[in-house]
Amino acid sequence: MGSDKQQSILVELKNITKRFGALTANDRVNLSIEKGEIHALVGENGAGKTTLMNVLYGLYQPDFGKIYLNGTEVRITNPKTAISLGIGMVHQHFMLIPPLTVAENIVLGEEPGNFLAFNRSKAISEVQKISEKHGLNVDPTALVSTLSVGSEQRVEILKLLYRSASILIFDEPTAVLTPQETKDLFRIFNSLKKEGKTIVFISHKLKEVMEISDRITVMRQGKAVGVLQKEKTNEAEIARLMVGRDVLFVPDQEVVPKGDIVLEVQNLQAVNDRGLPALQEVSFSVKSGEILGIAGVAGNGQTELAEVLTGLRSAQNGRIFLKGQDVTHDSPGEKIKLGIAHVLGIAHVPEDRHKRGLILDFPVSYNLILGSQGKDPFSRNLLLDSQAIQKFAKEKIAEFDIRPGDENLPARYLSGGNQQKVVIAREFSRDPSFLVISQPTRGVDVGGIEFIHHQILSMKKRGKAILLISLELDEILNLSDRIAVLYNGKIVKILNRTAATEEELGLLMAGILEYSSPKKS
Amino acid sequence: MKKIAKEILLPISSIFLAFLVGAVIIKVSGRSPFLAYQSLLMGGFGSLGNLAQTCLFSIPLIFTGLSVALAYKCGLFNIGGEGQFLLGGLFAMAAAIYIHAPFIIHFPLCLLCGFAGGAVAGAIPGWLKARYGIHEVINTIMLNWICLNFVTYIVNGPMRSHSGLGTPEPLKTAVPPLIIPDSLIPGNQLNIGFIIAIIFVLLVGFYLSRTVQGYELKAVGLNPMAAEYGGISISKNIFLALCLAGGLSGLGGTFYYLGDLGRIPSTLSFPGYGFEGIAVALVGKLDPLGVFLASLLFGALESGGIFMQLNANVPKDLVTIIQGLVIIFVIAPGLVQSVFNWYRGKKEREGFEYS
Ligand SMILES: Nc1ncnc2c1ncn2[C@@H]1O[C@H](COP(=O)(O)OP(=O)(O)OP(=O)(O)O)[C@@H](O)[C@H]1O
Ligand SMILES: [Mg+2]
Questions:
Q1: pLDDT at B331 exceeding the cut of 90
Q2: Measured between alpha carbons, how far is A393 from A167 in angstroms, rounded to an integer?
Q3: What is the maximal distance between C-alpha atoms in chain A?
Q4: Residue A63: its chain B contacts at CB < 8 A?
């Protein structure tokens, strides 16, 4: 029995320790991955999952510890070695070259042909072959710049398969996917597994973990604290192991008396980056003490809606009223007023923390004042008041449990979930009257989700008006008072949460139920 | 503390490696590296006079280096140092020749004009980039040529002196005074520009790290989308950054032409300080203090090189080679780091085993 098991173990990490300065990101971690399994790696933000996988992929050198492949020790000094050993990794941020085609991206560095001529048709046919075999369904001749996130990810997978990887590592592959794309990805996972490939995947979504994985390794504060068999565990147990206490999955919804209308949007119209209509006839209002959830499949105008409301994109038509005051700054051609949101006291948690939410090379303390850098406690006479900035940062780090608690660390070195907490901490501290919150828990662990949801609800209790945009239907259902479904740039319907069912929302989001013009707000 | 040590250790070992490779090259060319470096060192720091020369050579580099570093903090690659240097020099020279005022007014006025001249040469590409998104590398390079020809024309036309050597000499009240009197170190030309350069090192450092404006400028450089989200105007900062960068290069030109040369010569070519400023900024890790130290290094190589050529019969071109090597080793810290890692890794792998 014991030897049987020995044989099926493909990769074994032993006593892996990785330190960053004083911080121990991986502390004597043991991990064994069996051949042909789907192995999930879960743990709180900052638990060290990404670090561990970067060690396996050769991006980081462990301070101590050894890696065994098929029972023999290997030294993986760089990703190239990893790939030659059959280990491939898909990072959360894809590494593709947008102006090149799918096939060109895939063969890059290992192009077929001789050194004078690149054999394009061979590249295309080979890519096509692999793609069909696993039902990946991407067109090798398409330009990467035209692909959706889900397709880009499949290109990354193809890249690994083209290099004949047998162990595929995925760092939070589903964080950016729509539910449908996630389903497709899991179908691909299963097909790869049938091929005998081994998959390691990191996720914060325990539902998915329970759905797809065979075994689950739980990490906490740099240590591997348990290995679970899928059949013998459940979400609650995983969460408890991760966080070290019980986690509430559904936040307590308190009924808060609603106040006056804070934000009113009438007939809003806007275009996307390519100049195509992204929002049409969008009208709604949000009252004080109310959360209006925006449900919808990605790419139906959510991004543009958030940007128009916060002055980052101009409205082509329509009006936006904040507490009765017209703040539209509209009419095409007229320059939008930058950062108007923060001037007016609108807080904005942007959907992509790396794109807009953070300046990754600024320290945490500087990120916590972005948008307020010229305002009272943080600056005087055009000079930054570093004492005030530090003090504020220390307070927020304690209040929002941002780890590691070093305000001078560049935000880049925080784990994804902690980066999100920095954004949330900053925006929620503005004392705004209206908040636009987009994808607040993307890439955040269960404990963090619970915390952020709690914060959102407490903002509501304090009488804030909140627009919550999320691709997670659960999140919308758990937090909102009313739910507006966005489809194709239009609000198809606004329902009361109590009246909404998942089925109806699903149909509305898919554009199957009919568009009923929302005349009243 | 450990971090600071590491920050300093790496560039120093890069420089050391550059000299090591340089030694091999000297050896191969059949000369004695020991002798060459001895005279290089002597020439750079060997006497008070040589030290003064080193500092003098570093003045324009400090300004152009700061110029490149400042623009870079806003995400801009300022290749226009040459043109800004020239135009700044021209403005300052005009003020130095045509305005009559006591030193206390005249000299600062010349500096102001020099800054303004450089700022104009920075403002044009700044505006083109901010308004139309035209890439600053192209703008600044092209403007270099425009400035060169414009200044050549002015110097040989309207501002031509009777001697025909170029512009007249600046009025006495506009010449940067010497720091150390000639009686103490005979023949030294080190002027007050060095002290003003040090003040600017501190000013730029302060501006970047302590002011709201510096915060916003860096934010635009690091992530324009997030800066915009934070209410920071991208175009305003781009324009401002290139104006300031231009002004700094212009000050470099001011001291060079009013001080070192004492005129703008009629046969004009690119002075080279603008380009060398890029090297200095990179070697100085785009940090004001680093720029200062790198400028001193380059200044020492310059003054030491002349000395070396005279005394060790090693051509001054070797200095250019060493400059190149320094740049390579500093810009590719991975190279030096990997040597470190290899060494440390070897020791650790041998010495430690986890139970
Ligand atoms: N290059 C680095 N320098 C310094 N600290 C780092 C670095 N990379 C990671 N860390 C720290 O190491 C710890 C582990 O980070 P890691 O990214 O592995 O977490 P994670 O489990 O992947 O978290 P998340 O779920 O949020 O992505 C964190 O505290 C992080 O701040
Ligand atoms: Mg991670």
A1: no
A2: 41
A3: 74
A4: 348
Measured between alpha carbons, how far apart are the two ends of chain B, in Å?
32
Taking a C-beta distance cutoff of 8 angstroms, is the pair B113, B92 a contact?
A: yes
What is the CB-side half-sphere exposure of residue B190 using CA atoms within 13 A?
23
Q: Is it the case that residue B208 has pLDDT exceeding 50? A: yes
pLDDT < 70 positions in chain A: 1-7, 115, 248-253, 329-343, 513-521
Q: Mutation test of ligand 1: which of A19, A49, A415 has the most ligand atoms closer than 8 Å to its C-beta?
A: A415
- What's the confidence (pLDDT) of residue A477? 92
Q: How far is the CA of A25 from the centre of ligand 1 (A)?
A: 6
On whether the CB atoms of residues B123 and B250 are closer than 8 A, the answer is no
Residue nearest to atom 25 of ligand 1 (CA): A45
CB contact under 8 Å between B212 and A382, yes or no, is yes
Three-class secondary structure of residue B77 per DSSP:
coil
What is the CA(A62)–ligand 1 centre distance, in A? 14
Range with top average pLDDT, A150-159, B21-30, B214-223: B214-223
Chain A contact for B233 (CB, 8 A cutoff): yes
B1 part of contact set with chain A, CB < 8 Å: no
- Hey, whose CA ends up nearest to atom 24 of ligand 1? A45
Task: Choose from A303, A346, A359 for mutation: most chain B CBs within 10 A.
Answer: A359
Torsions phi, psi of A350, nearest 5? -75, 155
- Residue A163 C-beta-side C-alpha neighbours within 13 Å: 26
- In whole angstroms, give the CA distance from residue B66 to residue B220: 18
Residue B256's CB is within 10 A of a number of other CB atoms, namely 25
Measured CA to CA, the distance from residue A7 to residue A466 in angstroms comes to 55
Are A28 and B354 a contacting pair at CB < 8 A? Answer: yes
- Domains of chain A are 2-243 (3.40.50.300), 261-352+432-509 (3.40.50.300)
- B15 min Cα distance to partner chain A (Å): 26
Q: B54-304 — its CATH code?
A: 1.10.3470
Supply the Cα-derived Rg of chain A in whole angstroms.
Answer: 24
Residue numbers of B between 314 and 343 with CB closer than 8 Å to A:
341
CA distances from A287 to A189, A430, A521 (A): 44, 19, 11
Q: What is the pTM of this model?
A: 0.84
Q: Decide: A265 and A285 in contact? Cβ < 8 Å.
A: yes
Closest to A351 in 3D by CA, of A390, A306, A318, A403: A306
B348 pLDDT more than 80: no
pLDDT digits (tens, 9 = 90+) for B80-105: 999 999 999 999 999 999 999 999 99
